[in-house]
Amino acid sequence: MPILLDQIVIQTINGIVTGMILALVASGLTLIFGIMDVVNFAHGELFMLGAYVGVTTIVATGSFWLALLVATVVIALLGAIIQVTTLRPLLGRDPLTTILATFGLSLVLQNYALWQFGPVARKIQEPFTGHFSLFYLDYPWYRLVIAGLSAAIIGALWLFLKFGTYGIWIRATTQDRVMASAMGIPVPWVHTAVFAIGAGMAAASGVLFGPLVGVNHAMGLDWVLKAFIVVVVGGMGNLGGSIAAAIFVSLLEAYASLWVSPAQAVIVSFVALILTLLFRPTGLFVPTPK
Amino acid sequence: MSRRAPVAFWTSFGVVLALLIVAPLVLPEFWRRFVTEILIWGLLAMSSDILIGYTGMISFGHSAFFGLGMYGAAAALLSVRPPNLWLALLYGLVAAAAVAVFVAYFSTRLRDIYFSITTLVFSQIFYVIIFTWTTVTGGENGLTFSRPALRIPGVFSIPFDSNTLHWFVLAVVAVSYLVLRRITQSPFGMVLQSIRENEPRTRAVGYAVERYKIVAVMLSGVFAGLAGVLYALQNRFAAPDFVFFVVSGEVVIFNVMGGVGTLVGPIVGAAFFLLLREGFSRFFTEFYLIPVGIIFTAMVIFMPQGLLGFMRRRLNQ
Questions:
Q1: What is the pTM of this model?
Q2: Which residue ranges form the domains of chain B, and what is each CATH number?
Q3: Would you call A96 and B294 a contact, using CB atoms and an 8 Å cutoff?
Q4: A103 to B120: CB separation less than 8 angstroms, yes or no
Q5: DSSP string, B172-192
Q6: DSSP secondary-structure letter at B53?
Q7: Exposed/middle/buried for B79, CB within 10 Å: 0-12, 13-18, 19+?
Q8: B125, A270 in Cβ contact below 8 A?
Q9: Cβ–Cβ contact B129 with A under 8 A
Q10: How far is CA A219 from the centre of its chain?
Q11: Dmax of chain A from CA atoms?
Q12: Lower CB density within 10 Å: C or N end of chain B?
């Protein structure tokens, strides 16, 4: 089958849309890693639970935008609780123990969702159903709106980190935990806040992504893997790098799925990860360290 | 002390071995199967202890070696008539070793979290290949086959029933344990432990750290493949579910629960996990992972040494 120009254009748009959602998930993950060396294995589960909270709120109130807000707040609170109860005691231990603890948590959360919501996938209704024509397709506006919203949330995060007082505290803690603490910054609470922000962002992306595929208890697994890949390819703890890597990896997968099935297209991003680790272990989108 | 420790060790080893030999004769069918299963998962967990406990590298990709051992055995049992046990072992080990060489070469260049993520990603690659290559691997349905007979040409040939299978598994696991124990106490094992304690210093002393790590991953992979072959023999099928990274996660859980760096600990951890699963399934049905996950997380925080951690020094003498 010859690959036509219009297919390439469509896949480029698809790749950018998925890339923006992935960037939203991954920026939470990379923020958490950058500030406290925690590899959050439960991040996909927070994404999934966010989507479920969204579904429940939509059923109760009928409003998609309210659901987005409620899910973000609820999961951010859950994230804060998780950080205080499980991750705070691990502070100062080998960072690898945080992988184990969050892995345990992800099992609990995933099975909790299965128990609470059952194995049948739920559908989130799109907030609006307009289409525009793109070659032979009716392309839903909603997808472009998701990409825009994701970009807006990430932009807001960036502004907050750059100019907000608490944002400056967060950056200070990332640079030097001990020094920040000496300057009077409440470092343990900064950690909690960062985890809550990351969790809230995961939840928001879960709600935004819900209308595209439906919500089920296992959706977190795929996303946490992808987000790991993105975070490593972009350079651990590097926000800009993660965003670039999210779009890069999603575009690669979108183009690859022109030739192979989407299940196999995943391998392309795996290979991208391995090549990155071999040749630029600090990340593709950061300057080579001297 | 150093003179008496081996005596104590061999006595307790003998007692446990004797108990496990007698076990199938006294236990009802369900628990007989259960003990065999613990031994197989224990072997898999023990193989990954070489990396986690002795070299300080947490592998999240052991399902790849385990699964390839399974599919290797399946290939031998399905393609060669009559099915031959030793050929199944050979195929399984070669398949696992081939994957292990590949994974080891790339993943050992990385440290800590990056090593974990790379092994995880590799196991997912093999999962996707096995899952989508339906014509060869049976895809989602996996492969089913019949059990070969336990046969040494010219000596004897008996069909496997659940007792002989148990003893065969027990023999393989016991020998593997002794071999792995010997390896961890050898100069090679000492180098691995010094990599765990201080990698830059080990390199500075003049050891080729990368080469030692590659060998460690391969060794670990081969024993994991052996566990895969045994599992295939016991259950008479190979399925992509066993290559999925959740299995790797369970292996890490076994290690942490039982106590890393002890070799016996992971087997105890596997037993503990499977017992918890059995016990909680009665109340929580398929949601047993909720309480088990909570217990595991609590153990990571409050009991990082695991169940057998307090015996670590003694078990390594």
A1: 0.84
A2: 4-315 (1.10.3470)
A3: no
A4: no
A5: HHHHHHHHHHHHHHSHHHHHH
A6: I
A7: exposed
A8: yes
A9: yes
A10: 12
A11: 64
A12: N
| Cα–Cα distance measured from residue B136 to residue B89, given in angstroms and rounded to the nearest whole number | 19
Chain B CB contacts of A261 below 8 Å: 132
Helices marked H in chain B: 4-26, 29-49, 62-79, 85-107, 112-132, 134-137, 162-185, 187-197, 199-205, 209-235, 245-258, 264-284, 289-302, 312-315
The full set of domain ranges for chain A reads 5-279
Q: State how far residue B256 is from chain A, nearest Cα, in angstroms.
A: 9
CA distance B289 to chain A (A): 6
Closest among A22, A14, A45 to A151, alpha carbons compared: A22
Amino acid at B202: T
The yes or no reply on domain A5-279 and CATH 1.10.3470 is yes
CB contact under 8 A, B300 and A270: no
pLDDT tens digits for range B49-71: 988 888 888 888 889 999 999 88
Distance CA(A40)–CA(B86), nearest Å, equals 43
For A98-141, write each residue's pLDDT tens digit.
Answer: 888 888 898 888 888 888 887 777 777 777 777 777 777 777 78
B296 CB near a chain A CB, below 8 Å?
Answer: yes
ipTM confidence score? 0.81
Contacts of B291 (CB under 8 A, 6+ apart): B276, B280, B284
Report CA A209 to chain centroid distance, whole Å: 11
What is the rounded (10 degree) CA torsion for B212, B217, B223, B224? 170
Contact B293 A111 (CB under 8 A): yes
Taking CB atoms and an 8 Å limit, are B132 and A261 in contact across chains? Answer: yes
Q: Pick the more confident residue, A52 or A217.
A: A52
Mutate to test the interface with B, among A38, A45, A96 (most CBs of B within 10 A): A96
CA distance B112 to chain A (A): 7
